[in-house]
Amino acid sequence: MTLLRQVISAPVAHAVVLSRSCLAVSVTPRRKLSVSSSSRAPRVDANVLLGMSEQELQKLAVDLGQQSYRGKQLHHLIYKRKVKEIENFIQLPQSFRNDLQEAGWTVGRLPIFRTVTAADGTVKLLIKLEDNRLIETVGIPVEDEKGPMRLTACVSSQVGCPLRCSFCATGKGGFSRNLSSHEIVGQVLAIEEIFKHRVTNVVFMGMGEPMLNLKSVLEAHRCLNKDVQIGQRMITISTVGVPNTIKKLASYKLQSTLAISLHAPNQKLRESIVPSAKSYPLEAIMKDCRDYFQETSRRVSFEYALLAGVNDQVEHAVELAELLHEWGRGHHVNLIPFQSNRRI
Ligand code: SF4
């Protein structure tokens, strides 16, 4: 494994030690895989306040006959005070609260159905969506001797996943639907609620492939950055690779980290672990990642789950080193000790 160590340019992130789908999800979706355009469509955030910008909230207040500063107050209550119900917006006039409720508005916070805490303090949350589907999200606290605790939220972007990677329980369970932006932001706020601490980092490494739900992921990214006030550099979007999406993401010039779930140093082995790799050759992914780095100046992170006897031999390490040799300094590798999936 010495060679593998040579290609690591950063310590293995705590956040991804739990595997690419860091949730090891075991929730059974109600519908089987169907990647039709309708099943992929995110739920509309109709009448949900969570996810709206300050400007949008100001416009809403004005539309309901209030002065625009009431929108600022709404923003403060939702994102700073983290109030979960409109009736508890006691700083607002009762008439405004009534108008919001009568117009069908809700805050859109998600109820926590169950939590499981691991010995290291990591907490898995099972969250119930409005349509009774369940998703998992994980809060990972890291005590830092030099500063305040870091709290990473590992969030889901879909209910299930259509990509069926060989080692992933989520993939085996099939795909139900995309999450809307408020359902993604809601996971972060749920973790803050459990830990009573601000989330400092967000990784899109939970259920689902973020690049198959890029619209909601980008909307959630905006909200997490601008409204929840999590720095762009503290946000990581992880993908196994979906054709044409890395270029698209690069065009937004976000200062966030792109993480590629590589898991193999060659195309043949990768296809056996990540079936969707057939439609996106390794060479093309590496080229798109290089372009992403050039476009954003952000280092790309390559994730490599160590699957015993499959991709963890010395020859794989040599091949991985060769693959990354021409890359230069704009990458790092996370070696992920693979853990079998456990139900919560
Ligand atoms: S892309 Fe889907 S199937 Fe593959 S590891 Fe991620 S969640 Fe699992």
UniProtKB/TrEMBL annotation:
<protein>
    <recommendedName>
        <fullName>Radical SAM core domain-containing protein</fullName>
    </recommendedName>
</protein>
<keyword id="KW-0489">Methyltransferase</keyword>
<keyword id="KW-0808">Transferase</keyword>
<keyword id="KW-0408">Iron</keyword>
<dbReference type="Pfam" id="PF04055">
    <property type="entry name" value="Radical_SAM"/>
</dbReference>
<dbReference type="GO" id="GO:0005737">
    <property type="term" value="C:cytoplasm"/>
</dbReference>
<keyword id="KW-0819">tRNA processing</keyword>
<keyword id="KW-0479">Metal-binding</keyword>
<dbReference type="Pfam" id="PF21016">
    <property type="entry name" value="RlmN_N"/>
</dbReference>
<dbReference type="InterPro" id="IPR040072">
    <property type="entry name" value="Methyltransferase_A"/>
</dbReference>
<keyword id="KW-0698">rRNA processing</keyword>
<keyword id="KW-0949">S-adenosyl-L-methionine</keyword>
<dbReference type="GO" id="GO:0008173">
    <property type="term" value="F:RNA methyltransferase activity"/>
</dbReference>
<keyword id="KW-0411">Iron-sulfur</keyword>
<dbReference type="InterPro" id="IPR058240">
    <property type="entry name" value="rSAM_sf"/>
</dbReference>
<dbReference type="InterPro" id="IPR013785">
    <property type="entry name" value="Aldolase_TIM"/>
</dbReference>
<dbReference type="GO" id="GO:0046872">
    <property type="term" value="F:metal ion binding"/>
</dbReference>
<dbReference type="InterPro" id="IPR048641">
    <property type="entry name" value="RlmN_N"/>
</dbReference>
<dbReference type="GO" id="GO:0070475">
    <property type="term" value="P:rRNA base methylation"/>
</dbReference>
<keyword id="KW-0004">4Fe-4S</keyword>
<dbReference type="InterPro" id="IPR004383">
    <property type="entry name" value="rRNA_lsu_MTrfase_RlmN/Cfr"/>
</dbReference>
<dbReference type="InterPro" id="IPR007197">
    <property type="entry name" value="rSAM"/>
</dbReference>
<keyword id="KW-0963">Cytoplasm</keyword>
<dbReference type="GO" id="GO:0030488">
    <property type="term" value="P:tRNA methylation"/>
</dbReference>
<feature type="domain" description="Radical SAM core">
    <location>
        <begin position="147"/>
        <end position="344"/>
    </location>
</feature>
<dbReference type="GO" id="GO:0051539">
    <property type="term" value="F:4 iron, 4 sulfur cluster binding"/>
</dbReference>
<dbReference type="InterPro" id="IPR027492">
    <property type="entry name" value="RNA_MTrfase_RlmN"/>
</dbReference>
